Target: Histidine--tRNA ligase
Amino acid sequence: MTQGFQKVAAIRGMNDVLPGVGARWEQFEEIVRNWLHAYGYRNVRTPVLEHTRLFARGIGEVTDIVEKEMYTFTDALNGESLTMRPEMTAGIVRASIEHNLLYDRPHRVYSLGPVFRHERPQRGRYRQFHQIDVEALGFTGPDVDAELIVMLARLWKLLGLTDVRLELNSLGQPAERAAHRAALIEHLERHRDVLDEDGLRRMYSNPLRVLDTKNPAMQAMADSAPRLFDFLGDESRAHFDGVRQRLDDAGIGYRLNPRLVRGLDYYNLTVFEWVTDRLGAQGTVCGGGRYDGLIELLGGKPAPAVGFAIGMERLLDLWDQTAPPAAVPECEIYIVHQGDDAQRLAAKVGEQLRDAGLSVIVHAGAASFKSQFKRADASGARVAVILGADEVASATAGVKPLRGTADGAGQEQVPLAQLAQFVRQPQ
Ligand code: HAM
Model:
């Protein structure tokens, strides 16, 4: 007997996508790619691993993500601190600076892929999850801010989603935030007695985030806090008005949410989230906004930017509820065969049908016709192609529709030379 091996399970909060569900992901990704191309966005792919200081600087030292959610380790070979990306914006901005992407024109880019955050797993909150990240680099807005939001409304429509709501806010510019911050710290100092541990710890380092609390004992204090909106200057207000006008033009409703601050420090001016009540506690399917200071903060020539990321697992969950997934067939044509010669012919015929653009499974191994037909049926194929000794001798194939006809009905013998043409027509 071999030594016992304790089975290995996946890491908590990191999900396997199995065959049937994988097909659903592919359908979803196809809709998403077509949607992105409709607005001229082009694909980029940056590494999953980056230097830790990119995220510390980009996302902000005093954020939940950087303080406690990053998968960080020391590279054993050279002692560098590396981090699995907890989001994609910092990496895309790094790449755009490194390759001088914004040298002569702005860029609309997107990336799909896994990101990693060490959060407590629950429905809709995972440690490895996937984002559709969309960035418009080098645009001042507000037209582009609005276009991004309109674009998202189109995606919800494409997916048949009706109950995703938009929350909108403006965070103004750094100087306006500094004035607000000073007023806010004064307010927090006056209400020091109601602050919880997190609140006390952050009141000087990140007072805005203190208002983002879920602690009911702090709600009254948060509600009466000075509003950033009242500190915005003319330009910031004009930018925000520009976004709002364009949303009105497009007929997109939203809720102004002055408490919407987002969990990453790089934002200025427009910020937004799309939320739903249908996903339980993790109802935010998309978050984003403008981050005009990030490129410079990361060492690039100053340039404006705006973008968003969608949580793919959350959006898929919502889509599944709205449009329950139909099983996706494994192939169109399933070839069954009997005998060694027929098996070899089946392999050849399979290649010929694929040359004609069809999706084909050739039954692997040898088995009775009965069990091969069972497999053919389970595959979801619309047609079975049957090859036996007679077919080998006569250079023909049996063609049997598997869907929508009575059992055994409609089988025909077709010369191999005409097979591709024959099975291409829906039976
Ligand atoms: P974020 O709000 O941190 O923004 O994440 C975007 C979306 O990712 C969320 O709205 C949510 O749908 C999904 N998400 C976040 N955490 C989890 C999790 N643990 N499990 C499953 N889904 C999750 C960003 O990441 C920014 N980089 C967005 C951005 C791009 N801003 C400008 N450009």
